[in-house]
Write a structure and sequence with these properties.
Keywords: Membrane, Transmembrane, Transmembrane helix. Helix 6 runs parallel beside helix 8, helix 7 runs antiparallel to helix 8 and helix 7 packs parallel to helix 9. By secondary structure, the protein is an all-alpha fold. A two-stranded parallel ribbon has the order 1-2. The protein is built from 9 helices and 2 strands. It has a domain of 121 residues. The longest helix has 42 residues. The relative contact order is 0.10.
């Protein structure tokens, strides 16, 4: 007895279809090669999964949705941005730190060829939360700062992390937007 086409399609990873929809390269890439192969891909049920075995996974060291390498790069870049932003005379402190998060994530969006919103958002949120805690501990007498953190620490971390997350996502978006504008041909 020959298996039906319905059972063959259920053996494939359903996330592969979502990956195909999320690809930036609608005109080319692995989705187009499967469509160009036509009957060859349909005739071999294992052909699609074998083709994706060499590709990077969705989550991992070099994943498509989340990459540990990109997270490390984002954390390092945002940390440098926060440090440099805090060194600016007359506006350092909170405003300099926030500006450092925005500029660092903007530069990441400008430099990276792929979308890395998750990694940049995590780095920005962590920088915002850490900045909020250190700014409270750096003001006044240390036991007073610790007492303040014990009462208001969680809301303070949440607000600082939320502001850092928002600034990082906006910076990354504007950096990617500028990159797209610089790489697009001028119509005239």
């Amino acid at each position: 007895m020959q298996p039906s086409k319905e059972r063959e399609s259920s053996d494939d990873d359903p996330m592969d279809d979502l990956d195909d929809l999320l690809d930036d390269d609608l005109g080319g890439g692995e989705g187009a090669s499967d469509a160009d192969a036509g009957g060859a891909a349909a005739a071999e049920p294992g052909a699609r999964s074998a083709g994706n075995a060499g590709d990077a996974g969705r989550v991992g060291v070099s994943g498509r949705w989340f990459s540990a390498k990109a997270l490390g790069l984002a954390l390092a870049t945002v940390a440098v941005g926060v440090f440099v932003g805090g060194l600016i005379p007359l506006i350092g402190g909170t405003i300099g730190t926030a500006g450092g998060v925005f500029v660092a994530s903007f530069l990441l969006g400008l430099a990276l060829s792929t979308r890395r919103y998750v990694e940049t958002g995590i780095a920005g949120g962590a920088a915002g939360a850490a900045s909020a805690v250190t700014s409270v501990l750096g003001v006044g007498f240390l036991p007073i700062g610790i007492d303040y953190l014990s009462q208001w620490g969680l809301p303070l971390v949440a607000v600082g992390g939320g502001v850092g997350l928002a600034l990082a996502l906006l910076g990354h978006y504007f950096g990617r937007d500028l990159r797209a504008g610089l790489s697009r041909d001028i119509e005239g």
